[in-house]
Amino acid sequence: MENNKKYGVPLYSAGWVRNKVKGKAKIQDQDQDGDPDRSSGELSNAESQNYVVLAGGGGEGRSGIPNAVFIVLFDSATNALSNDPVARLVTHSDLPYRMAVHPGGDGVVCSFPNRCRYAQRNSVKIMIASSLLDFLDSYVGQQLALAFNYEGSALAAGGEDGKLRVFNWPGMDIILNEADAHKSVKDVDFSPDGKYLVSLGNSGPAKVWDVTSEKGPVSLPKENDEVFCSCRFSKGNDMNRVLYIAAVTGRGGSIVTWDTKTWKRIGSKTVVRDTISAFSVSPDGKLLAWALASVSLDSSARVTLIEEKNKTGTRLP
Questions:
Q1: Can you name the residues that pair with 92 across neighbouring β-strands?
Q2: Rounded to the nearest 5 degrees, what angle is found at the Cα of 54, between the Cα atoms of 49 and 59?
Q3: Boundary residue ending a domain (181, 206, 221)
Q4: Which residues span the domain enclosing 36?
Q5: Is 135 exposed, middle or buried (0-12, 13-18, 19+ CB in 10 A)?
Q6: Residue 203 three-state SS
Q7: β-sheet with 206-210: strand ranges across
Q8: 53-111: per-residue pLDDT in tens?
Q9: How many CB atoms lie within 10 A of CB 210?
């Protein structure tokens, strides 16, 4: 196993899920109705593994590339991803473009072109539970960004039409309602304490919203040729928490870090030559997982260790 893997589909979303498996994990495939297609293979020592959820596919056309949400194993001891998914949910013609993993590890909210669905997780097995979120489309159109807060009590949704909303979970009452947050909302993420929500648009600066007050957002400007594409707060209990923003530049994909106390830029580091299409921070704050897009309609997933912080904050290897 290696920490950089291709799984045969373009990847648009990545997330970490807490391990609920004991003993050995079996590979399990399903279709969108929850019917298993096949089960083969075993991976030992599942109790010590981390899991990464990935989503993507070839879309509605006849590319031959399936649309799916799947789980892969990451072995932190060997710094390696599994060669094959341990679970896969086939979504047929629906492309799972964005998703949010519930912090409790029990399910995933997926955004499809015409609806949102909630996929409930049972061990490493995934199944569509209900059309719980179908009504979201009537509120904000197609969802291009989804995120739970750290406690799992709130869900943020950013629409293609630029609307940004925060709902309590699972009641779905509106907490925050911004009709013109961006021209189109690309990504969102909550700070670990749930006070702040960062949002990205297709262009321009990132914005940080105080969910607990009516203050206007703080703008985080880009530099030179940067185009912001994904955002994640660091996790854990450190006093020196940072905000990570993945950016596309002429040199490739880079990670920009920001101080969450002053909202000042700490630095930027190019990490890959390709475009970062999605990334996520592990629940313990020690690992970054990202997916890379390519012109060949294939993508790779990679996990990297976040180095110990120095005086200026957390560093990337």
A1: none
A2: 160
A3: 221
A4: 1-134
A5: exposed
A6: coil
A7: 185-190, 196-201, 206-210, 218-220
A8: 899 998 876 778 889 988 888 888 888 889 999 888 888 888 998 889 888 877 888 88
A9: 15
